[in-house]
Known about the structure:
This protein is of the alpha/beta class. The chain has a single domain, classed as 3-Layer(aba) Sandwich (Rossmann fold), CATH 3.40.50. The chain has helices at 11-19, 23-29, 36-43, 48-58, 79-91, 100-109, 116-125, 131-144, 149-159; strands spanning 6-9, 31-34, 63-64, 94-96, 113-114. The protein has a 5-stranded parallel beta sheet with strand order 3-2-1-4-5, sandwiched between helices. Strand 4, helix 6 and strand 5 (113-114) form a beta-alpha-beta unit. The longest helix is centred in the C-terminal third of the chain and has 14 residues, at 131-144. The protein starts with 5 loop residues before the first strand and ends in an 8-residue tail after the last helix.
Amino acid sequence: MQARKRLIADSSSLILLTKAGLLKPLLDTFQVIVPPLVYEEMTRKDQPDGRLLRTCLQEGLYQIQTPSVLNHNAHGLKGGEREVFILHQELGGTILTDDGRLAALCRRQRLPYLNALTAAVDIWRYHHIDFSTLYQALLRLIQLGRYSDWVVAYVEKLINVKLERSS
Length: 167
């Protein structure tokens, strides 16, 4: 059995994937690591996303890990995004974020990263959801997220299908 790809996850993507019904498939597909501040951001309020994340932690579906060095240069990032970046520097793997600043930093530094849309495509590629589920989830994610046209076009190219979205 092939080792699962490690994701260091930010709250922005976890919230979106939870709302699109893809949190459990994400956790089945990847080894997900969440920094403490991200967990706190997700569970601070008694919302369905946070309750599901709490339950998944109790079931051992992902782990919380604290960065060992918090004074690391994090390029002006704060909060959970800062911890995600530092943990990635320590552990490697792929960053999961829909935060614009962190995604831009990943592109500038050529760090591997996914957003909720591309993570959904990977979940499908690993056969953890069918295409119909992927398609509906992508439409929901686009509706919930603030994706640039180029990001949506990139995902359409990945799946070789034009997403029929309402304007």
